[in-house]
Specification:
By secondary structure, the protein is of the alpha+beta class. It has a domain at 588-746 and 756-790: Penicillin amidase (Acylase) alpha subunit, N-terminal domain, CATH 1.10.1400. The protein contains 20 helices and 37 strands. It is globular, with a radius of gyration of 27 Å.
Length: 860
C-alpha cells in the first residue's frame, strides 16, 4: 500500500491524471520490437485488447504506452496535431465549405500551440522526459509499420508522420480549452469589422479559399432572417460520477462509478490501459485518445472520476464602440484600441498548388473578438457599428495540469488527493468525484472559474433577470458582461492558480461517509438530501434552480436503501449491486408519471387532435381521432426501464418529445407541482391536472396521441421494443443499444450527437439517421429503418470497490480500444455493452499473465 508515493517529479508526464499499474518485466515469452537501451517495456494485451504496460521506470512505461496508443489510435493524435498547429488546410485542403481554413485561422488566433511552445522550455525535467517518452513510443510504432501500415482511418495519408514531444504537450494544453476557446472556433473566424463583412452566402465568390470565414460572416451580415440554430455552446459531453462511502459500502471500503458520456467517434474517445512499475506504481483507467497517462481510474489507494462542470470557463464581453471607429471601444472613461494580427495560413488547392491566405484577426484586452449571430440571430451579439463581442479564457494559461495529476497519481489517500487540487488547481473543466480505501467520499468543482467581485456578481444577476440580451445569452450557456465597464474585470485574489480565477478556498466541495454524486448539474446538489450552500459564484453554476431528470434519477437510485432497492436488503452496495445500479436504466419521468398517465388514458381512451403544422405551414401530423387503448396498455405493462426487450420506452420518449423542454422544466402542461428549492430532487412533481373545461384538449392525452401518430408515420407498432429501434452501426452491423436520452432521465445516457472535430476524411464513420419523422422526435431513417442512432453517451463505464485485498473492478469501453473497424474487437466491445456483459478488470499480475492474448516487448 502506498508504495508509489516516492516516484517524485518524474511522474509529471502522466498527462491528465496519470496513474500506473500491474507487474512484470520481460520474462514472459513473446515478440520483441526494436533495440537500444534507452527504453524497454512489455505490453500484454488481454480481453478487449486492453494493454497492460510494465517497465522499470516511468519513462519505460510511458514509452510502452505511446507504442500501444500508436497501435490502437494512430490517427487521433496525428489528426489533432495537424489541427492545433493550424495546418489542416495545408495538409488536407480547404475542406467542405472551407472548414479547414476556418479551423486553422481560429487555432492560430487562440495561440494554444504558440503558448505551449513558449512554456515548453520551463516544464519540469520529469514532464519533458515523459512527454518525450510517449512521443518516442508513438514514433517507434509508426516507424515499425509506416503510414501505409497503420490500422485506422488515416492509413496512407502523407500527414501521418513522426511527432515531437512538444506536439504531445501542446495537444494536452488544447484539451484544457475544450469548454472555452475550443467552443468558439467558428465565432472567432466569423468576426470582421462591419465594413469588411462578406455579403450573404448566396452572393459569395465560390472560388474564395477563405470562404468558411466569409460564409460565417455572411450569416451575420444578412437581412435578419437567419433563425437561431440552438444553444451557443455545444455540450456533446456529459457524465455521471458516484462515490460510495463506508456507510453504504458492504465491506466499508470506498466504491466508485465512473460513467462519462462522451462521443463514440472523434478525438474525444477514451483509450483504456493499465500501467505498472513493479513495487512503485499500479493504476488502471482511461485517457483521452492520443494522450499519456490515465484521466479517470484508480490506483491501489484512491479512485477518481470526472464530470463536466456546469460552471463557466470563460466570460463574454459586449463592447460599446466609439461612433465611426469600429475597432475602438469604450472602457470606463477612456477609449481603447483593438489590436490586430495578420494571420497567414497555407491552403492546398485541388490542383495541388499551395496558396497563402491572410486574414486580419482582432482582439480586445480581454481576448479575441467573436461574432455569434450565425447561431443566435441577435444583432447585439455580432460586430456592428455600435458594439462587438469578445471573451476572456480561464484556461488558456493552464500549465498546472501536469503537476496536478502528478500529485493525484501519487495520492495514498483522499487527503493527498484533495491536497493535489489545493496546491495546483489544474483541473480545467471538470468536477471531481473520488473515494479511497478507507471509505471516504468527496465531491468538488475545482475547475478553472472566472473570479468576479461581489458587486459585479450582484450586477450580473440583476441583469440576468432584467436584460433580455443577458438572459438570452445565459439560456444559451454564455455569461455576457459589459466589457466597457471595468466593474466586470476578473479579480486577482491570493491563492488562485492564475490571476483572475476563483481560489481553492472558495470552490464548492463536500465530503460524506455515505455517498456523493454529480450528473452535470451544478455543485448545488451533490447528494439527495443535502444541498451545498455557501458564498459560491454563479459562474460555478446556478444554485436554487431545477435539476435535470438525470440528476434526479441519480439521486433516487443512490438514496434508495429499501430492501427492494439497488443496494439490497442491507442497504449497502457490493460491487455487483453497484454495477447493476449503474445500468438500471429507469427513466425519472417514467418513474414519477407513468402510472398517472395510464390512469388518465384509461379514463379517456380516445382523443381528437388537430393537424400539427410547422411554422411554414407544412403538415407534419394529420388531424385525427386517435385510439389510445393499445398505447395505454403498453405503458401500463412497462416498468419504466429503457432496456432492449422493453415495450414502452419508444412510445414514452415520443410522448416526452412532444412536451419539448417542459419535460425537464417546471410546472406546466406536464408537471403539476412547481419546483421548490427546498426539495430539488422531489420537485417539480405530479402529473398536471386535466383542464377543468371538459371540452378543452388535455395536453397529456394530445401528446400521447401525437406519439402514437409519430410511430404510425414511422411504420412502428406502439409496443415496439427499444432494441428494435435504438442501435449503433459497427462495421456495417446494427447492434441494439440500451439506455435513454437526457430527456428520458436515465443514468445511462446514449444519443447521436457530438462527433467532435475529426478532419472528416473518414468515410467509414458509421452513418446516422437522416432527418426526423416529426419535429422533436429523435427517430430518423437509417437505410430504410426507423432508428434512434447512437454515436455518443456512455463510453467508459467503470465500477470499482476497495476491499481487504485491494481494488476490484469491472468495466466497459463501449466502442473498444481499436480504431480499426475491420477488427473483431471494434464490434465486440459494443456488443458486450449491448449484452450488459461487464468485463472483469484484470489488476493482479499473475491473472494478467495468464490471460494475456499477446505479449510484446518494445525497446529503443
Amino acid at each position: 500500500m502506498g508504495t508509489h508515493r516516492g516516484a517524485g517529479a518524474a511522474l509529471a508526464a502522466l498527462l491528465l491524471g496519470g496513474a500506473l499499474a500491474c507487474s512484470g518485466g520481460d520474462d514472459s515469452p513473446g515478440d520483441t520490437v526494436g533495440d537500444g537501451d534507452r527504453y524497454e517495456a512489455t505490453i500484454r494485451r488481454t480481453e478487449g485488447g486492453v494493454p497492460h504496460v510494465t517497465g522499470d521506470s516511468i519513462a519505460d512505461v510511458v514509452f510502452g504506452q505511446g507504442y500501444a496508443s500508436g497501435e490502437d489510435r494512430t490517427c487521433d493524435l496525428a489528426d489533432q496535431v495537424v489541427k492545433i498547429k493550424g495546418e489542416r488546410a495545408l495538409r488536407l485542403g480547404a475542406g467542405e465549405d472551407d472548414a479547414n481554413v476556418a479551423s486553422d485561422l481560429a487555432w492560430r488566433v487562440m495561440g494554444v500551440y504558440d503558448r505551449a511552445s513558449e512554456d515548453w522550455p520551463d516544464v519540469s525535467e520529469g514532464v519533458e522526459e515523459l512527454v518525450t517518452a510517449f512521443a518516442d513510443g508513438w514514433n517507434a510504432h509508426l516507424a515499425e509499420v509506416g503510414a501505409d501500415g497503420v490500422a485506422g482511418w488515416c492509413r496512407g495519408e502523407d500527414w501521418v508522420e513522426a511527432i515531437e514531444p512538444l506536439d504531445v504537450y501542446a495537444y494536452a494544453r488544447s484539451i484544457t480549452v475544450y469548454a472555452s476557446g475550443g467552443q468558439l472556433v467558428d465565432y472567432v473566424t466569423a468576426a470582421r469589422p462591419p465594413g469588411e463583412q462578406a455579403p450573404p452566402a448566396d452572393d459569395a465568390d465560390d472560388d474564395d479559399t477563405a470562404g468558411a470565414a466569409d460564409d460565417a460572416a455572411a450569416d451575420t451580415a444578412g437581412d435578419g432572417e437567419t433563425a437561431t440554430a440552438g444553444p451557443l455552446l455545444e455540450r456533446p459531453v456529459a457524465s455521471n460520477g458516484w462515490a460510495i462511502g463506508t456507510d453504504r459500502s458492504a465491506n466499508g471500503g470506498g466504491m466508485l462509478v465512473a460513467n462519462p458520456h462522451f462521443p463514440w467517434e472523434g478525438e474525444l474517445r477514451f483509450w483504456e490501459s493499465h500501467l505498472t512499475i513493479p513495487g512503485e506504481l499500479d493504476a488502471y483507467g482511461v485517457q483521452l485518445s492520443g494522450l499519456p497517462g490515465i484521466g479517470i481510474g484508480f490506483n491501489e489507494d484512491v479512485a477518481w472520476t470526472h464530470t463536466v462542470s456546469a460552471g463557466n470557463r470563460f466570460t463574454a464581453y459586449r463592447l460599446d464602440l466609439v461612433p465611426g471607429k469600429p475597432t475602438t471601444y469604450r472602457y470606463g472613461d477612456e477609449e481603447r484600441e483593438m489590436t490586430s494580427t495578420d494571420v497567414t495560413i497555407e491552403v492546398t488547392g485541388d490542383d495541388g498548388e499551395v496558396e497563402e491566405v491572410t486574414r486580419t484577426m482582432w482582439s480586445s484586452h480581454y481576448g479575441p473578438i467573436i461574432d455569434v449571430r450565425a447561431v443566435m440571430d441577435i444583432p447585439q451579439l455580432g460586430w456592428t457599428e455600435e458594439s462587438a463581442l469578445t471573451y476572456r479564457d480561464a484556461n488558456i494559461d493552464d500549465d498546472e495540469i501536469l503537476d496536478q495529476y502528478l500529485a493525484m497519481v501519487q495520492a495514498g489517500d483522499l487527503d493527498e488527493l484533495i491536497a493535489a487540487h489545493e496546491e495546483h488547481q489544474g483541473i480545467p473543466l471538470f468536477n471531481t468525484v473520488a473515494t479511497d480505501r478507507s471509505g471516504r467520499a468527496w465531491y468538488a468543482d475545482t475547475s478553472a472559474t472566472p473570479n468576479l467581485s461581489p458587486e459585479a456578481i450582484a450586477a450580473f444577476e440583476a441583469q440576468v433577470a432584467s436584460d433580455f440580451l443577458v438572459g438570452a445569452a445565459v439560456d444559451s450557456g454564455l455569461v455576457l458582461l459589459d466589457g466597457s465597464d471595468p466593474l466586470f474585470e476578473w479579480v486577482d485574489d491570493e491563492g488562485a492558480r492564475d490571476p483572475g480565477l476563483v481560489p481553492f478556498d472558495r470552490m464548492p466541495m463536500v465530503e460524506r461517509s455515505d455517498y456523493v454524486f454529480n450528473a452535470n448539474d451544478s455543485y448545488w446538489v451533490p447528494h439527495a438530501t443535502e444541498v451545498l450552500e455557501g458564498d459560491y459564484s454563479p459562474l460555478h453554476g446556478w444554485a436554487g434552480t431545477p435539476r435535470t431528470p438525470r440528476t434526479r434519477e441519480n439521486a433516487v437510485v443512490l438514496d434508495d436503501t429499501s430492501p427492494e432497492g439497488p443496494s439490497g436488503e442491507d442497504g449497502r452496495f457490493d460491487l455487483d449491486e453497484l454495477a447493476d445500479a449503474a445500468l438500471q436504466n429507469v427513466g425519472f419521468p417514467a418513474r414519477q408519471l407513468r402510472a398517472d398517465i395510464v390512469a388518465r388514458c384509461q379514463a379517456t381512451p380516445s382523443v381528437a387532435v388537430e393537424a400539427q403544422v410547422t411554422d411554414d405551414g407544412t403538415e407534419v401530423l394529420p388531424a385525427a381521432t386517435v385510439d389510445l387503448t393499445e398505447a395505454c396498455a403498453v405503458l401500463d405493462g412497462w416498468d419504466g426501464a429503457y432496456d432492449l426487450d422493453r415495450a414502452g420506452p419508444v412510445l414514452f420518449r415520443e410522448l416526452l418529445s412532444q412536451f419539448g423542454g417542459e419535460a425537464q422544466a417546471d410546472a406546466g402542461e406536464l408537471w403539476a407541482e412547481p419546483f421548490d428549492p427546498a426539495d430539488p430532487v422531489g420537485t417539480p412533481s405530479g402529473l398536471a391536472a386535466a383542464p377543468a373545461d371538459p371540452n378543452a384538449p388535455d395536453p397529456v392525452l394530445v401528446n400521447l396521441a401525437r406519439a402514437v401518430q409519430v410511430l404510425d408515420l414511422a411504420g412502428l407498432p406502439v409496443d415496439v421494443p427499444l432494441g428494435d429501434v435504438q442501435a449503433a452501426v459497427r462495421d456495417g452491423e446494427r447492434i441494439p443499444v440500451h439506455g435513454g436520452t437526457g430527456l428520458d432521465g436515465t443514468t445511462n445516457v446514449v444519443g447521436r450527437g457530438g462527433l467532435a472535430s475529426y478532419s472528416i476524411l473518414d468515410d467509414e464513420i458509421p452513418d446516422l439517421p437522416s432527418g426526423d419523422y416529426a419535429p422533436g422526435s429523435g427517430l430518423g431513417d437509417l437505410d430504410g429503418t426507423p432508428t434512434y442512432g447512437i454515436a455518443n453517451g456512455t463510453s467508459f463505464l467503470l465500477a470499482v470497490a476497495f476491499g481487504d485485498d485491494g481494488p476490484e473492478a469491472k468495466a466497459f469501453l463501449t466502442y473498444g480500444n481499436t480504431e480499426d473497424r475491420s477488427s473483431d474487437l471494434y464490434t465486440e466491445a459494443t456488443q458486450r455493452f449491448s449484452d450488459k456483459g461487464w468485463r472483469e478488470v484484470l489488476f493482479d499480475p499473475e491473472a494478467i499473465e495468464d490471460a494475456a492474448t499477446t505479449t510484446l516487448t518494445v525497446r529503443a
